[in-house]
Amino acid sequence: MSRKTVTVFAATGSAGSACVEELLRQDVFNVQVLARAGGLQEKSSSGLLNSVDTKQQRWDDWRRRGVVVKQADVTDHASLIPALEGTDYLVSCVPLFATESQYPLIWAAKEAGVERFVPSEFGFIYEWEQFWPTDNAHKTAARQKAFIRRVIELAGLDFTIIPAGLWIEYFMPEPVAVMGDGNTKISWSSACDVGRIIPHVLAHPASRNAVCPVAATAYLTWNELLDARERILGRKVERVYLGHEDWLKAYDETPDGPMKAIVGIGVSATECPEGMPLWAHWNAMHLPAFKGTPLEQLFPEYIEPRVRELQAMLGAA
Ligand SMILES: NC(=O)c1ccc[n+]([C@@H]2O[C@H](COP(=O)([O-])OP(=O)(O)OC[C@H]3O[C@@H](n4cnc5c(N)ncnc54)[C@H](OP(=O)(O)O)[C@@H]3O)[C@@H](O)[C@H]2O)c1
């Protein structure tokens, strides 16, 4: 059977770059990257932007390692079709609040003969969150992401939806605001593991036209994760336990901006009805050989530096 070709959009982002690296390491698919030739406001989930130089270095490095980098005006249908021809699976890793940038790609992908579209999800199971009772900025993002899936289906493309729970690095600034009593197991995925697991999910036959909610790093309670962090760092990690009413109050008090969406995650997580979890552990069943980065390595090398970056950015804002 000939190798499938995977094209990654928003490849220089956190999840995108980890996905490209794992595609290269895994060596199961041909790898392409869709590079944006202008046309869209530069965004990122965290608010920290990649410089043009950093991106250029990534593209040059990937080219040397066999990746085909295709430039296109991603707002322009006519420019997108030739850039997507030859792609079997199109993986989008666009940042939070850039969901709408995927619309032109969907129909162009259809016309270019792409088989499957993997939209940028990688959080809660948005199909459910979109119907939660309390409106908030994160639920708006959930509704948009759920709508994108419908548009993919309308275009007649296959899809794979990959919810990934909470990205550890976003929720570790201290005092850590625990969602609820911290005793329910949830999915934890750091960006490096989100990107890493995507090619494995894609390579699995059960991922075609399926929702595959992963715990790419770990499936643990808040308390288990924070206890592990304390043990690894050898110090106490300050934490506060916030119930639904506390999250609602914090949400009302948070000014508009990326932080409001993060607090909205707490609002949604703490009104999650029994039996309708916003996460699951698909990889335990379907990808038992896939291992998240060990926490002993992840916390000192990946999480703590990112927490410092995020705190510095929020402090400067
Ligand atoms: N559950 C959680 O806790 C959590 C946390 C964070 C993110 N997420 C989700 O994970 C997904 C990926 O997020 P990420 O943090 O990996 O992204 P990111 O790192 O913020 O992505 C940045 C990259 O996106 C591309 N980009 C910039 N502006 C764009 C625009 N206007 N339209 C399209 N692409 C643009 C650029 O790559 P190129 O120049 O190479 O195109 C840029 O380097 C999102 O769906 C986000 O909602 C979930």
Your description of this structure?
Residues 3-250 form the NmrA-like domain. This is NAD(P)H-binding protein. Keywords: NADP, Oxidoreductase. InterPro entries: NAD(P)-bd_dom_sf, NmrA-like, NmrA/Isoflavone_reductase-like. With 317 residues, the chain is of the alpha/beta class. 44% of the residues lie in helices and 14% in strands. It contains twelve helices and eleven strands. The strands form three sheets. Strands 3-2-1-4-5-6-9 form a seven-stranded parallel β-sheet, with helices on both faces. The protein has a two-stranded parallel ribbon with strand order 7-11. The radius of gyration is 19 Å and the shape is globular. NADP nicotinamide-adenine-dinucleotide phosphate is lined by residues 10-16, 35-36, 40-45, 50, 55, 93-96, 98, 101, 120-123, 166-167, 170, 191.
